[in-house]
Amino acid sequence: MNARGGIAAATSTEALTTEQPVGRSAGWWGMVMFVATEATLFACLIGSYFYLRFQHGGPWPPDGLTAPTLARPLLMTAVLLPSSLPVVWAERGIRRGQRWRLRTGLAVTLVLGVTFLILVATEYAEKLREFTITTNAYGSLFYVITGFHGFHVLVGLTMISWLLVASLRRGTFGAHRHDRVRNAAIYWHFVDVVWAAILFTIYLSPRLS
Amino acid sequence: MVALGTGLALTGCAGGAPSALDPAGAGAARVANLWWLLFWISVAVFAEVMALLTWALVFRRKRRVRVRHGQPLRFVVVAGAGIPLVILVAVYAVGLRDLAALGDGPGPDAPTIEVTGHKWWWEVRVQGVDGATANELHIPVGEKVRVRLRTADVLHSFWVPQLMPKTDLIAGETRETWLHAERAGSYRGQCAEYCGTQHAHMAFLVVAEPRPDFDAWLARLGTPARPPQTDAQRRGQQAFLQGSCAGCHAIRGTGADGRIGPDLSDVGSRWSIGAGAVPNDGGHLGGWIANSQTVKPGNYMPPQQVGAGQLPDLIAYLQSLK
Amino acid sequence: MSTTAASTPGASREDLARLEERWAERPSLRSWFSTVDHKRIGRRYLVTAALFFVLAGLSALAMRTQLARPESRLLSPQEYNQLFTMHGTAMIFLFATPMLFGFGNFLVPLMIGSRDMAFPKLNAFGYWVFLFAGLFMWASLPFGAAPNGGWFAYVPLTEERNTPGLHMDVYTLGLLFLGIATTAASINFIVTSLKLRAPGMSLNRVPLFVWAIVATAFMVIFALPALNVDNAMLFLDRRFGTHFFDPEHGGNVLLWQHLFWIFGHPDVYIIVMPALGIVSAVLPAFTRRGVVGYALVVFAMASIAIISFGVWVHHMFATGLPPLSYGFFSAASTIITIPSGIQIFAWLATMLLGRLVLKVPLLFVIGFIVTFVLGGFTGAMFALTAFDQQVTDSYFVVAHFHYVLIGGALFPILAAVYYWLPKITGRMYHEKLGRWAFWLFFTGMHLTFFPMHLYGLFGMPRRVYTYPDEPGWGGWNLVSTAGSYLLAIGLLLVLIGVIHAVRRGRPAPPDPWGGDSLEWSTDSPPKPYNFPVLPQVHSLHPTWDDASRTSMTEGATDDRILARGRQTLVTSELDGRRERTVEMPEASLQPLLLALALLVFFTALLFAWYPVAVGAALVVASTIAVWLWPPRRPDQELGVSA
Description:
Chain A is an all-alpha fold. Chain A contains eight helices and no strands. Chain A is elongated and about 60 Å long. Chain C: This is Cytochrome c oxidase subunit 1. Chain C: Its EC number is 7.1.1.9.
């Protein structure tokens, strides 16, 4: 790589200017744009939900289905929303070069995320006894929107585990190299925030009429 | 361009085309007037652009032309935004007025014709009359008639260029439009929303006629079909009722009450077979019955196993239904 | 083959050798599959999109031949319906956007003075996905299983019960697959233009073409999800029995139309906008001055990008929505013509003040103005609900959008082909052949499509595989068919011109036209590293200004040569201040592997081999995991304390 090599090379002016983040990186912009287009995807799904609901008229959920209960979704929210905090803490840690904080934070988030998915599974197990994806348009919306979000949580968790595995090895992340941590964190925050919109749409909005 | 415009006007009024520029009713007349306004504005603006372009091509090509480095922003804003804005606002206002006029439908006492789109034909009923016909509807001259539109399957669009702009038939919903003709005549209409294999053959005819004739049409629609008069027709009716025909088609006053295909109670008087696929004469009718797939490929009527002896009787019977 | 760029004392011979070693790809089978060079990828986009264009064009010729006479039986309705669907779908999704993105791929890094795109591997991946998605869709045609529901695929016609078979599954899955490529390319364009501009290229010095590509990319980011959601729901309806579009079970057929056109109308501008950027790029070279009103044109592009999201209902004026919404969308659709008017008059003013050099690219630009303006008039007409209801879904609308899309996209694309051919291939085209191509194409185009206005007004609906004799549409249709053959000959001459140039053309100098943007200040074709010395930009027209030019020669500094690695410069988003040097990725087979895994995934979905799809998804995930795996670095370099 470098003609001179060794410590001198790594601490030379050029090396430092190469590695010290100045301004936003390309990766940051790339992730922000990706999240923007993903958010639009969810906006379209949620828009479709309300379009179908208001075009349908009459009681919602239709066909005598009961409005979803709130206990479990609120528990799911209580698990998922705070899961962003350990990520923030982990990211702040690696910015100071503290790998243990990165590892611990990611692990906590992983546990919270998996808990959320388990809760989704129990929610489905209960709902499937009442209606399925083919029952009517409401059923289709319910499972597709929550399922699509669940899939995003799964992707987010894959990223988190991937970071965790990478961070267990030496020589991957540090104060000067943590773009991947930051980008995965952005994605995870997004998955969290979207859940708030879904909670409102699927679980709270049928109660407002 | 002006010459072209005139040519357009001439051709529009000539020939047998169901031309939107040859309106025969209040709705289409509104739009035709709007078109000519838009047309002449376009001609004027196009002339302006072409004049500027020609000027540049003629005077700004010579080698000794000096490049000018100004930024004539005022010209760009005035010519590209200011003037168009004034024109567009005016035109928008006219357009809104015409849209309101198209919304000015018939009163509550006007006749209501109920049209249902099928792949690929039009079922026609009249509110308050117990009978159906297909691909042809009648309206009294000089009166606004309500048309209620539904579809039995996919989207279609109801369009009679000389009478009224389009209204789509939306699955799961009912739409309304109206028709008005100021002179008697037959006006061609056609499905304008792509609806599958035979979208091309989904035409219909609007017959505008004096009020007494219209009333007579209503009366015919509500009474049983003409009974067979000759032996051949009687044999034909037998064949119709005993064969597979009656499973899909209805003829009022007989046992045939199928609802899958068009009601055939007045098939002998219709303008065409297969919603505009072929003319309505004996030969084409026979061909249609034997194998309509060669005439209108993809339509839902399977080829019929009709004996060579039976076919002329069947044709005679169907042609007698007027 | 190239001539040497304007004398380059800027970079020493050793630097050049080192750059060559870092950036050049030895020609081999592997490098063909693994390249990440934006120029090679851009060229591939152009060639592949042109191939799909030929297929879609031949479909159109077959249709025109069928329609030449009434009651013609050359094509069956089933064949015709597949052909017109594939024609529209391919022209829009597989030709127009990829072709323009191809120019973007080749040109954006050159125009902003960078050595590659921000994400070169993602770029390669995008191309492979585009290629595979295009083949995926076209492959259905020989089996008679091509999409047949029209390019906007209205439900319930496209639902399983009305269109059984694979037809519409090919459509939904093909477009979802392709959407990955379009989204990836858009993100790449945005980030590249924000971060990789040469130092000194502040936002007010960004070439108009790059602005256009960025505005387009933003539209894609926010418009494409609507189409993706729509297609995903249709696929689920068809395959897994959901009821999104089924009115009998609480669904709604108009939901499809709303989502489709929320994407579909911005998409018109997604196609036209980069083409307008081409016009703004071509004009300066052939009028010998910059485009009048740079800021106005940028403003116009930005406002089109925004307003285009508020006009979709004008595609639904005949569906019987409430009149109030018609009033609003009619007004918005009227207003959106204003920014286009500004651009047209900015170009006219440029031509009126400059000195015209009437070469083939300028001819196509003039053809563009004539055609696009006519399409604009009918477009403004369609904004008026009453008039729209009369002529929508008739041949009038077919005429209108061909004037807009051929005028607004194809003419500029052809101008671009001639204009940048020397840069892309290093060869000059044959001027006279180009003129012939232009006149045949121009005449053929108007002969084909102008009569469609007439027989549309005369009551002929679109998408009919045949028509009867009585309404008297036959004569005009014959004119259209004759015109389409003329048009095809014109395009054939374009193709011959390109082949002739590549094989026999004169070698092109670095700057044959006296262009103003940075691509003209490097070799034709450019070296793999684009610029021996990255420029320091001092104006909007860097190739015309001495300070910018000399920054690449006498004024060269080591921090802009960057010969010590495979490097380029990252600058700040707004004012192009230098931030740091970044290492660019090497060639890799991962992009191809990832795209192949996705191809398997979508094919498996198509044929309902769901376990295979799951397997392919796992391959996708693991390829991405390996792709992004952080390289090992010493703790010192990472900055680790615990």
